[in-house]
Task: structure prediction
Amino acid sequence: MPRLTELVVALGMILIAGAVGIASYIGLGLARAEAAVVALAAFTFLMLYHLAAVRLRDRRGNARQIADLSRGVADLARQIAQQERRLGGIENRAENAIQAASAMNQPLAAEIAELGAAVRQLTDQAKVGDAVAGLPRAHGSDAPTDLAIERAALVDLIKQAVQADAIEPHLQPIVTLPQRKVCSYEAFARLRGSAGELLRPSDFLAAAEAAGLIGEIDRVMAFACVRMLRRLSSNNDGTAIFCNISSATLTEQETFKRIADFMEANRALAPVLVFELPLAAWRASGPREQEALSTLADFGYRFSLDHVTDLTFNPHELADRRCAFVKISAALLLDRRARAGGARAAAQLPQALAQAGIELIAEKIETEEAVMDLIDLDVRFGQGMLFSPPRPARPEAMPGAPKPPRRPRRSKLRTDVA
Result:
């Protein structure tokens, strides 16, 4: 239809221009060429007029469409604003309901926490009581046995060491393979006996656990690791310290709060301080343990797993919870190599961990043959007595530490009198 209209308009303009040309030829007496020019000029004028009219009409139509579209957008914006206000009201009501429910549950949670503390205290008392009851009595008397006295003395020694901050950190290096360059350290707790002898964890951890002092030992060690890292120079090339932490520490609210506050204040050290706990404790962690681990992860700290007894874990699930290292004994890795059908099959574990962003550390390495076999498995880090036993912490000997200042030479004084 629009094409037919345009065709009719064009024919009309041609007829009008022709009529103007004929009128100029007959009425004005112009020559044919001049009349033709007049006719062409008339046609051009009519064409320009038509185009201007069509453009003006299109502009008016577009303006009406734009106005309609603007009104539609405004209506849509008002509807969206109304929906946002409704959603805001729903969110406020939901938040108020959650806060009210939380306020109602706080007394119950406090009672449950107190009940749990009482249960743990009774359990610890029962352990100590069972240990004492299982010992023979001297000459049928009710006096404590020598072993019970030694345990009580050991508990007192641990308490004094915790209060005096006298638990000694010993460091064992973690080295790169095959270069054997020290890249990190693991901190171990050591305690001095009454005679000054050095006590290993196996000598006092059982007594500390029965007395509920594991959390305090972990706190002292964590603070000591932070102090050692502080004393390192700012040129530290990323040498990290692995600090052990137990599941009992994660569930002790007061102790863990002190650790968390201290770690938050020193979160600049998060890249070089790694918290280590057993794989079994990681798997058995409940809501309180997971909340504590999430708190440390939010500060930027990473985790390492040790005491690995099986290889059925999912590396990506570990990485999602900021687990950055997994320690597996050299014996378990090489036993898996023998059972899995050679080095190619056994090398899949380091590759799977690396793809998830987790470093594999082979620990408890004691022989050179084990080192060569681990290198064949593409294990990049190692730890064990072969490289070094745990030694007393001396931060000035760690990589990146500032060199001690030289002592000025003493000048010789003349003692003779003229």
Summary: Residues 32-133 form the longest helix (102 residues). The first strand starts at residue 168 and ends at 176. The chain is about 60% helix and 15% strand.
